[in-house]
Amino acid sequence: MTNHNVVVRDAKSGEFLLPPIVSKGRSNIAVGRPKYTRKIITDNEGRGGVKISSWIDSMRDSSPTRVKPATSSSETEENNSWIVNHPSALNMFEQIASASKEKQIVMFLDYDGTLSPIVEDPDRAFMTNEMREAVRSVACYFPTAIVTGRCIDKVYSFVKLGGVYYAGSHGMDIKGPSINHENKKGRQGVLFQPANEYLSMIDKAYKILLESTKSIPGVKIENNKFCLSVHYRCVEEKMWAALAEKVRVVLDNYPKLRLTQGRKVLEIRPTIKWDKGKALEFLLESLGYANSGDVLPVYIGDDRTDEDAFKVLRSRGQGIGILVSKVPKETNASFSLQDPTEVKQFLQRLVEWKQLSQYGV
Ligand SMILES: O=P(O)(O)OC[C@H]1O[C@H](O[C@H]2O[C@H](CO)[C@@H](O)[C@H](O)[C@H]2O)[C@H](O)[C@@H](O)[C@@H]1O
């Protein structure tokens, strides 16, 4: 089988070369398969007979699992290989732009850790005005979706842009852009809600968790409509086992709910096979690009839940996955950006490049 995933440096210029490879009629510039193994709390571990200690290990790892800092030369090499296998999307901008020639870019943006920095209080994860302007401009040129674990109303209160798609609750609540950018009421209706029947179950689980975790200082339970976030960023580590136990009890009582993990957060969601990757596919299909080779999806995200979307890009053999991270991590993304500031710069460059190319520059 052809290896589609290799970054090659030009021997003379030292530049990265990304040959477009045709796969099932699609162009592929995905690179660098991760060689790290990943431990994650799976559905099976999430209930009955669970070892809470394995949860705690996983909670410590946070998301996506950080590759340990180098302590030997082979580990230094491994860290160096991170930047070779996941080069900066800013440094590789020209190659990414040229991969999009003759193709429609569709932009997918995670919210927390991507458009806004990670902060202690989830209710104060604001994005800057500059970032909002960058997203607004990108959405003028390319169909753009915000794909987030948050519920749509909450993320909309941060993003405040009408001209984009919103895929909230990890893609389980998808809405189209408004017709009138300034008028929230004009927002196009629901496009897809695959977990509708779980609404009341999620609500009950939310109430139970609110009550049962009251005695654990620092915990925050967020109702994201089709899923719940149990935040432990501000919970002392000695209380994590007690918190995990409360979550386990809920999962035992609601076998149709399962557990996933994000950055210092345990997430409870329906057992349906739906995630950010499925939402990406759904949106591409809605936009008329289901089996098209004329599209270049670009997905930027920082978290474990974004890996589902990166995996979809890999399996489609199409598109650009960009992980937002300052440190080497296990990921299916091909490129990296260090933080939301770099994400903003990347979006701004994309807009400038599009404007120039429209004038034939
Ligand atoms: O898919 P995302 O947009 O990345 O949302 C994932 C979760 O993000 C939020 O929690 C995370 O960000 C908080 C604010 O910076 C931080 O305090 C927390 O530790 C992170 O896990 C959000 O609050 C969750 O509801 C989302 O599911």
TrEMBL record:
Its EC number is 3.1.3.12. It catalyses: alpha,alpha-trehalose 6-phosphate + H2O = alpha,alpha-trehalose + phosphate. GO terms for biological process: trehalose biosynthetic process. CDD domains: HAD_TPP. Its cofactor is a divalent metal cation. Keywords: Hydrolase, Stress response. GO terms for molecular function: trehalose-phosphatase activity. Signal peptide: none annotated. Pathway: Glycan biosynthesis; trehalose biosynthesis. It holds the Pfam family Trehalose_PPase. InterPro entries: HAD-like_sf, HAD-SF_hydro_IIB, HAD_sf, OTSB-like, Trehalose_PPase. Residues 60-79 are annotated as: Disordered. Belongs to the trehalose phosphatase family. Removes the phosphate from trehalose 6-phosphate to produce free trehalose. Trehalose accumulation in plant may improve abiotic stress tolerance. This is Trehalose 6-phosphate phosphatase. It comes from Erythroxylum novogranatense.
